[in-house]
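Ligand: phosphoric acid mono(formamide)ester. Inputs:
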Amino acid sequence: MPRSLSGRSFLKLLDFTTEEIQYLLELAKDFKRMKRAGVPHKYLAGKNIVLLFEKTSTRTRCSFEVAGNDLGMGVTYLDPGSSQMGKKESLEDTARVLGRMFDGIEYRGFAQQVVEDLARYAGVPVWNGLTTEFHPTQMLADVLTIEENFGRYKGLKMVFMGDARNNVANSLMVVSAKLGINFVACGPKENMPDKALVDVCKKIAKENGCTITLTDDVKKGTKGADVIYTDIWVSMGEPDEIWAERIKLLSPYQVNDAVMANANPEAIFLHCLPSFHDLETTIGKEINDKFGIPEMEVTDKVFRSPQSKVFDEAENRMHTIKAVMYATLK
Ligand code: CP
Ligand code: NVA
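Predicted complex:
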């Protein structure tokens, strides 16, 4: 059992030990069982949390709201642009005000420094719901989904395909190093994770008996993989002008039948979502009109295949976020 996480913020996985991450996963499993069995768990009744979003969201927002309600808490949502923060009020003042009213604060936005500063001034736990650099709550759901499918995660091979320097890829590399998962970043040289972060992760991986590999070779990278993971090619906050360059660079790293055939026959496909796998979105249609590609980071066939566990993964966001809030607020 790790030391108590009560009062801690959840800003990035580098701040947590292997045992602490494992503890959060165990807690999430307990909460999932309770939810499935209809066992009430309003353990945090009387507390209140605020969700501060500077970027849009479906899963993260809904996970915090449902998990907060299940735990008996009051939940306030501040949507992009509706708080005074940044425009009329400094980050420090906003954090001090919210910390006087709420027991916990979720933040989704831009620089990691913002969420770190919020935690510094708020005086209550702050949870990172995605920054430019990291997306730590996503990883707990991902590892839980992997464990549900393989009965373990240590020693497995997970490959991230595509924009391997984005928030999701960075966090996947960290969680893999912490939990003994062999991680491969498979993408063009231009889109590899930051060297300083790679070095830190390689050191942690060594302590936990696993490896971190960077490669631009799809065949080698995905060979025998247990988990194939991808994310959209242009993240929130990046300019639209970048699509042309990204499509050119990342198309060879699309997750398709050939990639899945090269992986372990039992391999699963994961994606944090949202995903451009068909023409049912406005951006997907615009990109197809402009560049003639009806599917992007993953083919519709792989996305809808039995190997794809993306909707279990999405559900697990809620159970794992509940674990994070409970552990830090109890
Ligand atoms: N995966 C994820 O964070 O989804 P949302 O952007 O919908 O929250
Ligand atoms: N890399 C994506 C993740 C979305 C959940 C983004 O930042 O937009």
